[in-house]
Design brief:
Largest sheet: 9 strands, mixed
Strand content: 25-35%
Number of domains: 2
CATH class of the largest domain: Alpha Beta
Number of strands: 18
Structural class: alpha+beta
Bound molecules: 2-OXO-4-methylpentanoic acid
CATH superfamily of the largest domain: D-amino Acid Aminotransferase, subunit A, domain 2
Shape: globular
Order of helices and strands: EEEHEEEHHEEEHHEEEEHEHEEEHE
Length: 355
């Protein structure tokens, strides 16, 4: 793919304190952009200054939310090399998201090439401090100006990047989660398995409710019976009960997380039985009370792993592992981040160098 380069006049000042990066606050100098039209398909790949994008007020995305996105990271190793983690999985997931939203396919090889190109261009922005990385946000949206609800005739694919630290200010300290028993996130046949902006917009009210009650995130139940646990906030979730791992199956309502898949690989390699099966909230709370609920953790690219120390369902509250990060949670975090930052051998071939 030929990528043209549009230079910016003045480069931005990089954040001086890498311990205060937070998440998604500082955008880098450049972005990757490519356009799609019915007649030309994908064309005009370019790296240009990260700047506001002019949009017609009738742009269909502003009205009907035809938008999908991805999230992955670039890591700086101790030797100063930069690497990605399973970028082809993000590319494939975006293809599946787009198919559901009637948006054009962005081929896997082009996706990976575009990610490598923008990261290479912004390599000075990949932070050095422990647990920091460059978060990469590819996204696609319809640009056609029209108010009819239909597949659009023009789309843009953009990748922006930002240096990040921990997603939650609490880092690896356990968070408190509230089970949402009224609002739902996804139903079968809907868009729950896609990474589309609309899913996240619909989740904010649940999060606001949880925050008002002193909780960090929401644990979503299935949309049909409000009985089975599915996802937590912006992450997949796993439970260790009596030595076995439980997580919701990928059957249309749950996001097929890259971190989820990687954790399942590690866990099975270590001899754990991982049950990708429906788990009812009643059984979960029961396990919390009878002492068999040993560890709970969310998994996602942004947060990596987020231990859960307390669960509330209606008026019932259980504390998990005395509100401390569990041994397995810590081991998963150390192993996955060890591979991502090149501290441990990557025997799975998950890392991809940016050269
Ligand atoms: C990620 O984990 O990369 C996500 O996309 C979650 C995000 C909404 C912050």
């Amino acid at each position: 793919m030929e990528i043209r380069f549009v230079k910016r006049d003045v480069l931005k000042e990089k954040p001086s304190d890498e311990s205060k990066l937070g998440f998604g606050k500082y955008m880098t100098d450049y972005m990757f952009v490519m356009d799609w039209t019915k007649d030309e398909g994908w064309h005009d790949a370019r790296i240009e200054p990260n700047a506001p994008i002019p949009l017609d007020p009738a742009c269909v995305t502003l009205h009907y939310a035809q938008e999908t996105f991805e999230g992955l990271k670039a890591y700086r190793t101790a030797e100063g090399k930069i690497q990605l983690f399973r970028p082809e999985m993000n590319a494939k997931r975006m293809i599946n998201s787009n198919a559901r939203l009637c948006m054009p396919e962005f081929p896997v090889d082009m996706f990976v090439e575009a990610v490598k190109a923008i990261v290479k261009c912004e390599e000075d922005w990949v932070p050095h401090a422990k647990d920091t990385s460059l978060y990469i946000r590819p996204f696609m949206f319809a640009t056609e100006a029209a108010l009819g609800v239909h597949m659009a005739s023009a789309y843009k694919f953009i990748i922006i990047c930002c240096p990040v630290g921990a997603y939650y200010p609490t880092g690896l300290d356990p968070v408190k989660i509230m089970v949402e028993d009224e609002l739902v996130r996804a139903v079968k046949g809907g868009t729950g398995f896609t990474k589309c902006g609309g899913n996240y917009a619909g989740s904010i009210l649940g999060q606001v409710k949880a925050e008002k009650m002193g909780y960090t995130q929401v644990l979503w139940l299935d949309g049909e019976e409000r009985k089975y646990v599915e996802e937590v906030g912006t992450m997949n979730i796993m439970f260790k009960i009596a030595g076995e791992i439980y997580t919701a199956p990928i059957e249309g309502t749950v996001l097929p997380g890259v971190t989820r898949d990687s954790m399942i690989h590690l866990l099975r390699d270590w001899g754990y039985k991982v049950n990708e099966t429906k788990l009812s909230v009643d059984d979960l709370m029961k396990a919390g009370h009878d002492g068999t609920l040993e560890e709970v953790f969310g998994t996602g690219t942004a947060a990596v792993i987020s231990p859960v120390g307390e669960l509330r369902y209606k008026d019932d509250v259980v504390t998990i592992n005395d509100m401390k990060t569990g041994e397995l949670t810590q081991k998963l975090y150390d192993t996955l981040t060890g591979i991502q930052w090149g501290r441990l051998e990557d025997k799975y071939g998950w890392t991809v160098p940016v050269e």
